[in-house]
Design a protein that fits this description.
GH92_a_mannosidase_put; Beta-galactosidase, Chain A, domain 5; 4 domains; GH92 mannosidase fold; glycosidase; nine-stranded antiparallel beta sheet; GH92_N; globular; Glutathione S-transferase Yfyf (Class Pi), Chain A, domain 2; 39 strands; six-stranded mixed beta sheet; PNGase; alpha+beta; EC 3.2.1.-
């Protein structure tokens, strides 16, 4: 065994002793987080190092698959994979689509350095390495693993715009780094449009690449510096149609630096035999090389300094919620909180510059530009959670970033699914709208409200987008002109309602009146005969044949079917209850959804359909509010039962612990809210529907300095029902709390019992908000 491995074994042994001792003490929120949760199964999370909302996500990539096979590797890492390619600097957390994986770096040793990844089934065939999970450490802002083939201990940490690697090489052996600019998640021939790499006289490595993947023409620059001087280097172009493959040593560009350009670049960086670990500081920029160098300078410090800063940032962010619960649930919840604090990520440089959707460079004034907006997912619970636990400035940054993106958009509308400042046009709706409205209605300021409302209206009125021209004329999206028309109709109607809410609060009554009318358009896609939301044709007829269980991409519904989408009118669930025939009929239909026999159905063709409980699909977002609808129908104890069923079956503190894609924090935010005992069914309403708690005690440490405490007296596996609820010591007889109740500080106390309380919060007056009420008598 070489000297490095002996030291590593000793360090691991000491760490085990320290861990055993620490386990006897109370875990901090930081210590409770396990970033490997969701790295297996369908979670699509990554275990690597990042700061809260950080621009850098420095994480291992275990494999790069051709784009048609890349879905499971959307985060670059699969827990079950036996090898690691290297460590790249950009990753999505839980996305349902793959991309990123920029600037792959990996260590190598010896005299013969491979420049290709090799075959995972053939050790030594390339630069990838085998590893063992026993050598991995993953905590917020820090990741470490031993790469067995080169015998290198690799450590990663990250600040907001800087990632730092540290490699412990075997003593007496030539040390190298490989920088592969070909490597990319969602990989396919021709994805790399162009790339460059160069080394300056002071040893700084800089470069860029432009890719066409999920987002078109995405540009990224990087700057890289080392704690030891370069002893040599080789830059190689692997393009088959380029006869000149590269150069070694003295090649120079016009400005006197060694450089290479092409579409398949890989570099070998030589450091000789090292006597101490090699540190590599890397920054990225969407603007230019100067931006990457400036970002590198904006966060000075070595590996340990950046790690300490990241640890402190995570301590503060995770400390927004204090949770007392059983150890497994506590780990699951703090990891969920961690995952909810990763995006939207910073994408503006330290000097305020950023690249917008017009591919031009702009300067943010008074805010930090953020991107990675998975809006179809995150408007539901992720952003409402952030309005509670993040400072007003951070939430204002999100809104300002959305407004700025609209101002720079060639189409003049808000983002749909944006990352790195680029629009993907993925998913449906204009869900930047409820995020802005919900923030404004909760009192978040620091942005131009009139500009925000103008952007919201412009997006809702942009007729070329998603059948909006027909929607405005007909009151629904016709399926014979636009795919997924049933889903689009009901999602547009909800978004319209949030426009109306914000406009009315601002005194813009003409806009409020127009969009309140549009908010009822969900009724135009509801079929009273079947009790389902269905797609209609231009002539007004419902499309046939109709199968409420059918799921096909590009059909009547978006990543779902009639069972999930027939409940999506969060602004008017009372109107739906009335249309279904009342409370009893609604409860019966909800039960039919959860209890549906799927044994004869096959959804294997639909990647996003995971976490099925009957026709309830927790692994995808359209179902997320449905369990709470029993409360709207006067049966809150049935909500409590279904929530127990969902939490027990869909979340675990293991790599396979997420039943579906975390979708940039939405799955995690759902669990955080649900564990506290309430959920924002209709963001924009200012209300949270009460379910049941899954923690003994939790404290929300609000940005205002106040705190809101949740207590669950008598909570146990037996006592799974809510007997009574008290708000600030007074009995609460309604099935919801208001945002203002939380912001005021105080306490929400649940008294749990073994049998359901079938009289609590059942009266219509005790039910959550609905535009048109619950019965014909109201």
């Amino acid at each position: 065994m070489n000297r490095f491995l002996i030291c590593s074994a000793l360090a691991l042994g000491l760490a085990a002793v320290a861990t055993a001792g620490a386990a006897q003490q109370a875990e901090t929120p930081y210590d409770a987080v396990d970033p490997t949760i969701g790295t297996g199964g369908e979670g699509h999370t990554f275990p690597g190092a990042t700061a809260p909302f950080g621009m850098i996500q420095l994480s291992p990539d275990t494999d790069i698959k051709p784009f048609k096979q890349s879905y499971k590797w959307a985060a670059g890492y699969r827990y079950e994979d036996p090898t690691i390619l290297g460590f790249s600097h950009t990753h999505f957390s839980g996305a349902g689509h793959s991309d990123l994986g920029d600037i792959l770096v990996t260590p190598a040793v010896g005299d013969d350095v491979p420049l290709d990844p090799g075959d995972p089934a053939k050790p030594g065939s390339g630069y990838r390495s085998r590893f063992s999970h026993a050598t991995e450490i993953a905590t917020p802002g820090y990741y470490a693993v031993t790469l067995s083939d080169p015998g290198v201990r690799a450590e990663m940490t990250a600040g907001t715009r800087v990632g730092v690697h540290r490699y412990g090489f075997p003593t007496g052996t030539p040390a190298h780094l490989i920088v592969d600019l070909r490597s990319s998640i969602y990989n396919y021939p021709g994805k790399i449009l162009w790339s460059t790499i160069r080394v300056t006289p002071d040893g700084t490595i800089t470069g860029m690449r432009e890719t066409r993947g999920w987002a078109p023409a995405r540009k990224l620059w990087f700057a890289m510096r080392f704690s030891a001087p370069l002893a040599g280097h080789a830059f190689v172009n692997r393009e088959e149609d380029v006869p000149y493959k590269g150069f070694q040593g003295p090649g120079r560009g016009d400005d006197g630096v060694a450089m290479l350009a092409g579409r398949a670049l890989v570099a070998r960086l030589d450091f000789g035999a090292l006597v101490r670990p090699l540190e590599v500081r890397v920054a990225i920029s969407g603007v230019d090389e100067a931006g990457a160098i400036g970002n590198l300078a904006s966060e000075p410090g070595d590996f340990d300094a950046i790690r300490a800063q990241s640890h402190a940032a995570w301590d503060k962010a995770l400390g927004a919620v204090r949770i007392d619960s059983a150890p497994a649930m506590r780990k699951t919840l703090y990891t969920a909180l961690y995952h909810s604090l990763l995006a939207p990520s910073v994408y503006g440089d330290a000097d305020g510059r950023y690249r917008g959707p017009d591919d031009a460079v702009h300067k943010a004034e008074g805010f930090t530009f953020h991107s990675t907006f998975s809006l179809w997912d995150t408007f539901r619970a992720e952003h409402p959670l952030l309005t509670l636990i993040q400072p007003e400035q951070r939430n204002a940054d999100f809104v300002n970033s959305l407004i700025a993106s609209r101002q720079h958009s060639p189409f003049g509308i808000l983002p749909v699914w944006q990352f790195n400042g680029r629009e993907t046009w993925c998913m449906i709706g204009y869900h930047a709208v409820p995020i802005i409205a919900d923030a404004y209605l909760k009192g978040i300021r620091g942005f131009d409200a009139n500009a925000a409302l103008d952007a919201m209206v412009a997006s809702a009125d942009y007729e070329p987008y998603g059948g909006l021209g027909d929607y405005k004329k007909l009151g629904f999206v016709p399926i014979d002109r636009e795919p997924e028309a049933a889903s689009k109709t009901v999602e547009y109607a909800y978004d319209d309602w949030t426009i109306a809410r914000m406009a009315r609060a601002m005194g813009r009554l003409d806009i409020a009146t127009r969009f309140e009318k549009r908010a009822l358009n969900w009724r135009n896609s509801f079929d009273p005969a079947s009790g389902f939301v269905r797609a209609r044709k231009v002539d007004g007829s419902f499309r046939t044949p109709f199968d409420p269980t059918a799921i096909n991409y590009g059909s009547d519904y978006t990543e779902g079917n009639a069972w999930q989408y027939s409940w999506f009118m969060p602004q008017d669930e009372g109107g739906l209850i009335r249309a279904l025939g009342g409370d009893a009929a609604t409860v019966k239909k909800l039960d039919a959804m959860f209890d549906f026999d799927n044994s004869k159905l096959d959804y294997g063709h639909a990647e996003d359909i995971a976490g099925l409980i009957g026709q309830y699909i927790h692994g995808n977002e359209p179902s997320h509010h449905v369990a709470y609808l029993y409360t709207y129908a006067g049966a809150p104890w049935r909500t409590q039962e279904r929530l127990k069923q969902i939490v027990d079956s869909q979340y675990k503190p293991t790599p396979e612990g997420l039943s579906g894609n975390d979708d940039l924090g939405q799955m995690s935010a759902w669990l955080i809210f649900t564990s506290l005992g309430f959920y924002p069914v209709a963001p924009g309403s200012g209300e949270y529907v009460i379910g049941r708690p899954f923690v003994d005690r939790a404290v929300l440490n609000l940005p205002s300095g106040k705190s809101f405490t949740i207590r669950a007296e008598g909570l146990s596996e037996t006592n799974r029902y809510v007997g009574q609820v008290f708000l600030d010591g007074q009995p609460l007889t309604r099935g919801f709390i208001r945002h203002a109740d939380i912001e005021a500080g105080g306490e929400l106390r649940f008294v749990m019992q073994a049998s359901p309380n079938k009289s609590w919060a059942t009266a219509e007056a005790a039910r959550p908000f609905s535009m048109t009420g619950y019965s014909a008598h109201r």
